[in-house]
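Researcher: Sequence recovery benchmark, item below. Answer with residues only.
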């Protein structure tokens, strides 16, 4: 029996269009995306109701940005983004242009300015999975394979993990099907995948995420963050407009109560918002490098301007005291979760802009300066292990490596967050607070921990917030420095 190929039905996108205005280009991206998602949503709803037409497949495509340049003319060599490195054809598939509107306008504006050629907007060659198309319509749910009256993959495109990867950021030579080089760090399907994961892990919509992200590993920081947020909402000129808690509960009045949900997500996340998106997001990633990688893998697609780790650590020097701070300037990576994506021989440099912001924040909050600041803060190597109970093993090997590395602190998340910041070109930093000293007999025990948390968490969190506020005032071209860019980089941040 000879099987015939199914007839493919797609929306009529028309011909690609050239633009010399970034706002108009993004508006057309939004129109194409809306047309594609509405087509898939309508087709899927009709299929659920009436059944799948025999021999028919529904397919819509992500919109794309495309630019062609033939000149080697140089651009401002101080800029690490906003331009392509050599003549050629460059493209980026786009999802959720409504969510990324400001980002897209900014990045396209730089391309138009630096290369003086139009950008082309049109449909791409990448099919849009039906799961992602219906994700923004709460009335539509895609049934599991086999639960419906038709075979989903025969009628609609579904997420394809074979092509959803980090080849672009990992620098493994990614090109599109037609040979175009990438304009952006992630493809549309990779972004859609992470947006769905973010909503699942954090129980907040990706639209609430702000451009400055704090990671912590303890719930105590969440309580202090909410208290700080309420104080800011009570201050008319603070610039903050709302606070979003788990479950997308948003308040704009400082006295509005927030109920604790009966079931917390894996990574409770909270957002102190500003109208321009330059507020602060706090993510409680919990304990472990796997959680740290999961969170940063997905938050990276939102292209934040900075992320910082403000958690607890084991102090490794006898001169340290509980409550002292550690400003990480290097990382001993024994967490292992990123070894396949970023080999351990790759150095993770300290970023001067982040380091200065953190040190200045510590000085401001503690009211200590210069040599006096050394009483409570050390700058040094942070070691991250994947074994929380490393102390119970033969200490000869680990302790020798820690000593040889000059490590001053040990935790389970910081190296992963820094390494993924390096990999995803997101400015990163670490400020830890010493909560125990296992090599010197000061273990993290319940009573000690309670007293420590009460006195130190508020101050530590405030330092992280003050550092973010300082970074917010910094020009993007200074914060997103060339240190995070490789030989041939994408034009988009």
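Model:
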């Amino acid at each position: 029996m000879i099987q015939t190929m199914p007839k493919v039905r797609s929306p009529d996108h028309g011909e690609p269009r050239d633009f010399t205005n970034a706002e108009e280009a993004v508006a057309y991206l939004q129109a194409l995306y809306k047309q594609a998602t509405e087509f898939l949503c309508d087709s899927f709803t009709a299929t659920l109701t009436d059944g799948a037409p025999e021999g028919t497949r529904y397919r819509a495509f992500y919109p794309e940005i495309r630019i062609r340049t033939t000149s080697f003319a140089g651009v401002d060599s101080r800029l690490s983004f906003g331009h392509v490195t050599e003549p050629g054809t460059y493209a980026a598939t786009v999802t959720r242009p409504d969510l990324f509107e400001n980002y897209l306008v900014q990045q396209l504006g730089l391309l138009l300015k630096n290369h003086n050629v139009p950008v082309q907007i049109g449909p791409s060659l990448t099919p849009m999975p039906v799961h992602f198309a219906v994700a923004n319509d709460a009335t539509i749910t895609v049934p599991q394979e086999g639960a419906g009256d038709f075979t989903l993959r025969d009628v609609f495109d579904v997420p394809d993990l074979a092509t959803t990867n980090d080849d672009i950021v990992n620098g493994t030579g990614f090109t599109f099907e037609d040979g175009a080089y990438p304009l952006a760090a992630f493809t549309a399907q990779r972004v859609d995948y992470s947006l769905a994961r973010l909503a699942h892990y954090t129980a907040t919509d990706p639209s609430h995420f702000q451009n400055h992200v704090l990671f912590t590993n303890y719930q105590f920081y969440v309580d202090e963050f909410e208290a700080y947020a309420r104080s800011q909402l009570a201050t008319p000129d603070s610039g903050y407009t709302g606070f979003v808690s788990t479950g997308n509960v948003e308040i704009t009045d400082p006295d509005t109560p927030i109920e604790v949900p009966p079931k917390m997500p894996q990574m409770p996340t909270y957002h102190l918002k500003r109208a321009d998106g330059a507020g602060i997001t706090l993510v409680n990633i919990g304990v472990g490098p796997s959680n740290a990688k999961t969170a940063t893998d997905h938050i990276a697609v939102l292209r934040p301007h900075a992320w910082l780790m403000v958690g607890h650590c084991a102090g490794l020097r006898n001169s340290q005291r509980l409550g002292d701070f550690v400003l990480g300037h290097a990382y001993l990576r024994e967490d292992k979760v990123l070894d396949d994506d970023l080999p351990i021989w790759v150095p993770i440099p300290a970023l001067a802009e982040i380091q200065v912001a953190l040190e200045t924040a510590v000085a401001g909050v503690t009211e200590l300066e210069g040599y006096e600041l050394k009483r409570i803060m050390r700058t040094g190597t942070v070691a991250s292990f994947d074994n929380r109970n490393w102390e119970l093993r033969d200490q000869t090997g680990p302790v020798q490596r820690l000593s040889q590395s000059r490590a001053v602190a040990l935790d389970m998340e910081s190296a992963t967050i820094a390494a993924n910041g390096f990999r995803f070109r997101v400015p990163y930093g670490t400020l830890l607070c010493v909560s125990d000293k296992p090599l010197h007999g000061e273990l993290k025990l319940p009573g000690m921990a309670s007293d420590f948390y009460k006195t130190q968490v508020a101050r530590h969190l405030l330092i992280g917030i003050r550092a973010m506020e300082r970074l917010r005032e910094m020009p993007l071209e200074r914060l997103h420095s060339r240190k995070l860019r490789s030989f041939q980089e994408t034009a988009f941040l």
